[in-house]
Design brief:
heterodimer, A: 453 residues, alpha/beta, Gyrase A, domain 2, Four Helix Bundle (Hemerythrin (Met), subunit A), 7-stranded mixed β-sheet, 6-stranded mixed β-sheet, flat, B: 628 residues, FAD/NAD(P)-binding domain, Elongation Factor Tu (Ef-tu), domain 3, 4 domains, 5-stranded parallel β-sheet, 20 helices, 36% helix
Chain lengths: 453, 628
Amino acid sequence: MHDDIIAAIATGYVESAIAVIRVSGYGCYDILKKIFSRKKINFEDKRIYYGHILDENGSIVDEVLVSIFRSPHSYTGEDSFEISCHGGLMVSNAVLQIVLNNGARMARPGEFTKRAFLNGKMDLSQAEAVAKVISAKSSRALHIAQLQLKGNFSNEIGEIRKDILLLLAENEVNIDYVDEELSDFSKEKRLSMVNNIYERLSSILRASQSGKSLFDGMKISIVGKPNVGKSSLLNKIIGIDRSIVTDIPGTTRDVVSEQITIKGIPFTLLDTAGIRKSSDDVIENLGIERTVDAIKKSDIILALFDLSSQLNEEDYDIINRLQKNSNRVIAILNKYDKKSGLFNKGIIPFKRQIQISCKTGYGLEELANELEEIAIGNIADSDIVSMNASQITILKQGMKLCKDLLNDIKGDIDPALISVEITGLIDILDEIIGKITTEDMLDVMFRNFCVGK
Amino acid sequence: MFYPKRYDVVVIGGGHAGCEASLIAARMGMKTLLITINLDSIGAMSCNPAIGGLAKGHLVKEVDMLGGEMARNIDETGLQFKILNKSKGPAVWSSRAQADMPAYRLRMKHIMEHQDNLDMKQATVDEILEENGKVVGVKTNIGNEYLCSAVVVTTGTFMKGKVFIGLNEYSAGRAWEPPSIKLSDSLRSLGLRIGRLKTGTTPRLDARTINFNALEPQFGDENPAPFSFKTENFNRPNIPCYLAYTNEKTHNIILSNLDQSPLYSGMVSSLGPRYCPSIEDKVVRFYDKPRHQIFLEPQDEGSTEIYADGLHTSLGYEVQLAFLRSIKGLEDVEIMRPGYAIDYDFVDPTQLKHSLETKKIHGLFLAGQINGTSGYEEAAAQGIIAGINAALYIQDRDPLILRRDEAYTGVLIDDLVTKGTKEPYRMFTSRAEYRLLLREDNTQLRLAKKAYDLSLIDKTDFERIEETEQKIEESVYKLKNTFVFPTAAFNQKLKELGTEIIKTKTDLAKLLRRVEIQYDTLKKLIPDLGELNSFIKQEVEIQIKYEGYFKLQYQQIEKFRKYESLIIPKNFDYNKVGGLSNEVRGKLMDIRPESIGQAMRMPGVTPAAVSLLLIYMKRDERKIKSSA
C-alpha cells in the first residue's frame, strides 16, 4: 500500500554544514534519474555517487553525494536514497523542492518510521514508540498548520475555500437538478471565479516568495556615503555566513548579488560588486544613485553612518531619501570603537538602530538577530519553513489546474469532467485550505440554490 | 399462537423496499412471507408519481440487473419517459419516467401474488422475536407468531408516524393509513438506536378544475428507452406534465400564514430534507426569488388527480387552497388531498453492516426509509440487497456487498453505514466519486457477473451481455489499430465532413475523440468498418472519447481498493491503540469499520489515526504469527 514516494529533509531544519534529503518508496530511482546529473548510472545498492542535482532547466542546484539503499536494506525497508547536499535551508529546500516536483510528496510526521515498522524493519516493542511519535508529531503539525492559518493569509484562504465550494456546488447543482430554474451562473461568472481563485493562489505564492520568503531570500542593500565602511560591513556580514553558496551574476548591468545565510535563513546581498569596486575608488559618486536603487529593489536597507564624526550633507541626503521607507531600514552606526561624541544619534529617524564596530565585531550579533527577526517575524517554529516547500509545490499545481479549468469552462466541456478538475483542485489544496467533503459541498448547494421540485 | 408454517424470510412492509426484498428472496428459493398493514397499498407511491431521475435512474437500473422488479414495473406502467442531462456527458445521463400510480401499484401486487415461494398477509408486526442474538420470528398485533430465520424490516415512514397539516396532527403511517406503533419499541429493546426524521408531500389537485390552456406542457422523449434490460416491445404513451409558477401573491399568502405551519411554529423539530424543501422553506430562504416552478404531474392515465410537484407543504388546508388559487391556471382549483408533513422513527444506519444486517442481531436486516433514506429508488436498492443477503445468510454464504466503485447502490449503503445521516438521505450523482465509470449505460457490464454468480439473472441473459462486452472490446481495439494516412483524397473527405485534416498517420480512435466525430462519421470515411448495434456503438464512443478520464478514475479506484482490502479484524481492540483521541476512539468503537478504507471515510478520523490503526493491526498480525 505504500506505493507513493515520500521525501523530507532528514537532518531537520537547522543550519548545518550538510543536510540530508531522504526519499523512500518504490519508483524513487525514476525520480533520481530525472534530477541527477549522471544519467548512465544504475544506482546500485549500498553505493554512494557523486554528482549534481539539476533543476527542470538542467541548471545545477547543488553538488551532492547520493547514497543508494535498495529494498530491503534501507531505513524504511523500501527502495530509497539519500541526498547529502550543502547545509543551509535554501539549498536543502531547493533540492527537496525538485524531488517533490518530480513525483514525490512531502512525508507526513513520523511516516518514514511508520513505514519502517510496517515493513518489518523495527522490533515489535517499538510499536508504541512509533505510535507516540506519530500522535505527537501530528499534533505538532496541526499546531504549525494552525499557526500559519492565523497569519496574513487566513482571509484569502477562507475566500478560496468558499469560492471553490461555490464553484463545485454550482457545477453539481446543474448536474443533479436538471429541469429546475436555478440561478444559473453565467460562463463569465464561473470564469471570473476561477480567475479569482487563480489570483488569490498566486498572491499567496508571491507573498510567500517575496515578503517573508525563506526561499529566494530577502534582499539586502548597504547604502552610505563614501568611506563610511560599506565594504568592511559587507565582509563582516559575509563572514557571519559560514559558507557562501553561489555567486550569481545579477540581472542588472553591473549589479552582482551574493546569496548568504544568516542563522539558517537565506538572504541576498545586492550590488556587492559595486561596493567592492567603489571601496577602491577615491572619488565615489555612486552613493546617491545606489541609495535610490536600493530603495527600489531591497527588502532591507542597511544605512551606514560613521559614529566617529558628525553627520554631513551626504548623510542627510541619504536619510531624506530613505525616510519614506523607514520601516525597511536598519541604521548601522559604525565605528563604535572610535565613538567621538560628535555624533548626534537623535537626528537619525529610523526605529531600528544598531551600533557596531566592523573592526572589533561589536554589534554584529545584534545585527544578525535583527535580520532574523525581520525575516521570520514572530513565527518562531522553524518547521514552518519546511511546510512551505511542499506548499509551494501545491500552490503551483493548483494554479496550473486553474488554468486547465479556465480552458475547459471556455470550451464548454462536459460538467461531469469539469467536476473532476474542481475536485482535483480541492484535493491539491486540501493541505492548505482544509478538507472539503461532499457534505460541505451539499451544504453550499442547498444554501445557495433553490432546489427541489 | 405459533403459525404452523415455517418461513425462511419474513419481510415487514410492502413498499418499494419490501417488494424487492420479498420478491428476490422468493426468487432465490426462500420460503418468504410479506406482512403488511394494508395489502391494497403494496407498491404504493406515497409521494411523486415518478420513477428514476438524477442518480435514481442509476439505482433503478442496478436493481433491474440484480433481478429486481422496479424497472420492469415502470416500463409497463409509465406515462412518459425521458433521459435527463442529455446535453451533458454520458456519466450523468439519467432516466426518469412519470408513472401511472394505480397501475404501477396493481401490477406490482399482481407480480407478487404470482411469485412462487411468496406468501402475503395483512397484519401489523409489533415485535421481532430474538433468541441468543439471532432473529427467530415476528409477532403481530393479534398475537400471531411467524417463525423464520431472517427478517427484513422495511417500514418506511410508518413507525410512530405522525402527520401534520397546519396545526392539526394525528398518528398515521401515510396520510390515510394507520401507523405502526409498537415495532420501534421492539427494535429499541433489541438495543438499536432510534431517531426521528421528517418529510413531506404536496397537495393533490382535481384535474377538472385546472386551466391547462394557461400552462406550458412538457412531454417526454419521442423515442424513449426502457429502464429494464429485459423489456421488449416497449411502447408507452407520452402524456405531458404542465409547468406553472408561483408569484409574489403566492409568496405573500405563505409568508403571512407561517404561524399556521407546524415547522415554523415549532411543533415539528425533526430534520427534513434540504434537497426537497417545502414551499414555505423556499419562500422564506430565497425571499428574493420572484417565482418558483411547479410541475403538475398526472397520477394516472385518466389524469383526474394531479400531483403538484414543487409545493411540498404542511400549511393548513385553507392556506394551501388560498396560495394554490393565486397561481395562474389554478384560479379555480380544488384540492383532492392536502399536502402534509410527516415525522417518523428511523434506525441510525451506522448500526448496520454493509450487508444491511444489524450488527447487534443476526438475521435482522433493515432496508429503505427506516434507514434514514428517502425516495422509492433508494428504498428499492436497499430492499433488493437486504433480500439477497437475507437469503445468503440463510444459505450460510458470503453477503453481496457492492463497493463504491461498482454501483450507486454501493455508494448509498456505504454512506449510510459509515456516515449515518441527519436528514432523509437522497442519492446524488455527486456522492459517487467514481461517477464517470458508474453510468446508467454500463450497468449491465458492471453488475452482470455478480448477478449471474448468484443466479439472479438467466444464463442466456448473461451470455448475451458477455458477448456484447466482448464486441465492445473488439471494436475499441480495432479502432485503435486501424490507421488512416494524410492522403489528399482522405483529407478531402475529412474537409467535407467539416473536421480538420490530418497531417500524420492517425488511428481511428484518435479521430473519434474529436467532438464532432461519431462512429457513424468514421463509417462514412471507412465504409467497411463494420456495423454495430446502437448500444455497442454508444459504448465504443464513450470508452474512446473519455478514455483519459477513465484511466484517471481507474487509478483512483486502484488506490481505493487497496485500502478496502485491509480488513480490520472483527474483534479489534481500539482501547489498545495508544495516541487515539477519545472522540475518534469512540467513533471507531461505535461504527466498527470493516476496513481501513471505511475508517478513512468516517467523519473525524484523521490520517494520523489511520496510521495508528495500521500499526496496531500489523502488530497483532505479527503476534499471531509468532505465537503460531
